[in-house]
Amino acid sequence: MKTVFFKAINLTIIIQVIFCTVLYAEDFQVKHADSLEADKENIYIKGNILVNYKDATLEAPEGKVENNTNGEVDKAIFTGRAKINLKDRKIEADKITILIKEQIIIAEGKTISQLKDKKNEILTITSDYQEIKWTGENANAKGNLQTSYKETKVTCDEAQVIYKNNKPIQALFWGKGKQGFLEQSTSKTKANKFIFDINSQNVEATGNVLSTVWPDKKKPIKEQEPVLLKTDYLYIDQGSGTITAASNYNNKVSITYEDTNGESTEAFLLRDKINNKPEKIIFKGDASVSQKDKQLSSEEVVFNFKSKKLSSNTTTNKRPKTIIFKSND
């Protein structure tokens, strides 16, 4: 098989001719490379590669363009710590593959991507594998995955970024071998699955949820006791500061704060809307809450953060039941 080999400091003109002939894609241009080798099936490029394709630029030490059995361009592969820059994202990886017809970018090996939201804030994802559509649609990542966005950090096995109007709006995170872990400024949560809203930074967690929440958003976490939650479902609303927990029929929400321990079907941690200080925890649905010297059971039990007292509300004929434990003194 006949092979053509070129070597030069700048191969822009030669390589553009070859790519336009073989790829019949005028916007796929190799602007620079140190050497090029071409045969009927492949084009091999080496040394300081700079490629322009559509709205992107790509840099890599080595590259190869493969044709399919019909002689049409199938994919372009770049290795040796390749980098690709698009208008709304950057990707760096040991290997970057561009599937030409599918318009998909596949990044493998120590992959780092940075995606811009509608306000140009950066969402950074590091993983072993990432798959991104050129047209700005859903993106997937997996393997040793870590994500950071403003004050939110996530560690998990797999993730999917959901796009709308070419901008990321939502991120889904899964734990496979182990649970996912999500950390924000006033909470740390483990769960089987997370849904993170990029615009509001609200969090929905499901599946064996264990969460540590520092109730006072303005007070350093080292100076306050956390609220410990165990539940099937958790929703953290950053705007209102409300945290909602719910469990199925077989389990109950379990909450511990200082000497207060409570269980119920649902629970709500409410903050003062003006200063974000903790206001109360509402235990709702077959609630049972105990403190050092008493236990209160009712359809609804309320814990007040300021007074540390419990109170009971009921909307049925069921009366609250209070059991007072006398001190040994």
Descriptive account of the structure:
This protein is 4% helix and 63% strand. With 329 residues, it is mainly beta. It has a 25-stranded antiparallel sheet that branches. The relative contact order is 0.06.
Quick overview:
This protein has 329 residues and is mainly beta. The chain contains one helix and 25 strands.
Uncertain spans = 1-26
Any idea what the shape is?
Answer: elongated
What's the alpha carbon Rg, rounded to whole Å?
Answer: 28 Å
Portion in beta strands:
over 45%
- Mean pLDDT, to the nearest integer, reads 85
Distance between the termini: 98 Å
Level of helix content?
A: under 10%
Main sheet attributes: strand count, strand direction, barrel closure = 25 strands, antiparallel
Reconstruct the topology from this structure.
Layout lengths: L3 E4 L4 H12 L4 E5 L2 E4 L3 E12 L2 E12 L5 E13 L3 E11 L4 E13 L5 E12 L5 E11 L2 E13 L2 E8 L5 E5 L2 E5 L1 E5 L5 E11 L13 E10 L6 E4 L6 E5 L2 E5 L1 E6 L6 E14 L2 E11 L5 E4 L7 E4 L5
Antiparallel strand pairs: 1-3, 2-4, 3-4, 4-5, 5-6, 6-7, 7-8, 8-9, 9-10, 10-11, 11-12, 11-13, 12-15, 13-14, 14-16, 15-16, 16-17, 17-18, 17-19, 18-21, 19-20, 20-22, 21-22, 22-23, 23-24, 23-25
